[in-house]
Amino acid sequence: MKLHDDLPVDHHLSQVYRIGAGLCGVALLVFGCLGLADGLPVFSTSGERVAGLSSNGLLSLVSVVTAVVLIGGAVIGGNVASTVNITVGTLFVLSGFVNLALLDSSANLLAFRIPNVLFSFVMGLVIATFGMYGRVSGKLPLDNPYWRHRHPRRAEEDTTSALARRAGPVALPGPPV
C-alpha cells in the first residue's frame, strides 16, 4: 500500500502516529540521556536507579537508539510512523518477556528489574496502540485508507455512488411531464 496515494498529508491518522512516536521517543531519550549522563557502567547486571528504573550504560544506549528510531518515524510520519510504532511496541513487549526470564541471572545485560519489565510491557502497548490506531479494527470507517485498501471493490462502489449523489438528478431526454 502506498500511503502517499491513499492518505492525505493532513489526514488525522498521520498526526496520531507522529504524536505517539514523538512523545514515547522523547520519554525514552530523556531516560537514556539521564543514564548516560550518570556515567553508568556499561555491562553492570545490578544496575543503578535512573528515573525510578534500574539502568546501566547499555540500557541507556539502547534507550537513546530506540528514541532516535521513534523520533525519526515521527518526523517522517504517515505509514512509516505507524509501522515504526507497531514494530517498536512489539519489540518492547517481547523485551519484557525475555528480560522477565533473565531476572537475577548473569545474562541480565540490561540490568532489568520488575519495574523495568512492567515499564517495558506498558510502554510497548502504548507505542503499539499509537501505531495501530485507525489501522487495525473491526469497525474502520468507510473513508479510512486502510479499509479502502483491504476492500477495493466496495471502496470503488462507494466512490461511484458518492459521485452520483454529488452530481444530483440526471435529466433524461424526452417530452416534459
**Helix-strand pattern:** HHEEHHHHH
Overall pLDDT: 79
The end-to-end distance, rounded to whole angstroms, is: 50 Å
What's the total number of strands?
2
Q: Return residue spans where pLDDT drops below 50 for at least 5 consecutive residues.
A: 1-6
In short:
The protein has helices spanning 3-6, 12-37, 57-76, 78-102, 114-132, 145-150, 152-167; strands spanning 48-50, 53-55. The chain is mainly alpha-helical and 177 residues long.
Structural account:
- This protein is mostly helical and 177 residues long.
- The protein has helices spanning 3-6, 12-37, 57-76, 78-102, 114-132, 145-150, 152-167; strands at residues 48-50, 53-55.
- The protein has two domains: 3-133; 140-164, no CATH class.
- Helices cover 66% and strands 3% of the residues.
- A two-stranded antiparallel ribbon has the order 1-2.
- Residues 1-6 have low confidence and may be disordered.
- The protein has seven helices and two strands.
- Strand 1 (48-50) and strand 2 form a beta hairpin.
- It is elongated, with a radius of gyration of 23 Å.
Per-chain topology:
Layout: H1 3-6, H2 12-37, E1 48-50, E2 53-55, H3 57-76, H4 78-102, H5 114-132, H6 145-150, H7 152-167
Antiparallel strand pairs: 1-2
